What we know:
This protein has 3 helices and no strands. The relative contact order is 0.18. 64% of the residues lie in helices and 0% in strands. It starts with a helix and ends with a helix.
Amino acid sequence: MSLTERQKNVVALWRTWRKNMRDLNDGWFPYYDTGKQIHLFYEYLGKSHPSLLDMPKENPYLVIKAWVERNLDL
Length: 74
C-alpha cells in the first residue's frame, strides 16, 4: 500500500472513529484534548489496523499524528 493510500485510509478511519467516540455520549470524549484523542486513536489503529502502522522508514506515531492534525474537523 502506498503512503498516499495509507494516509487516505487513516484519515477516513480517524473521522469514523471520532464520530463513533462522540456518539458514545459518555460525556468525556469531547473534553479530551486533541493530543489525547490522537493517542487513543493511535492505540486503536495498533489493535484494529496494525498494517497501517507498518512504516519501516518512518516513526508511525509522528506520521499518523501529522496526518490527523492536518485533517481535524473541529
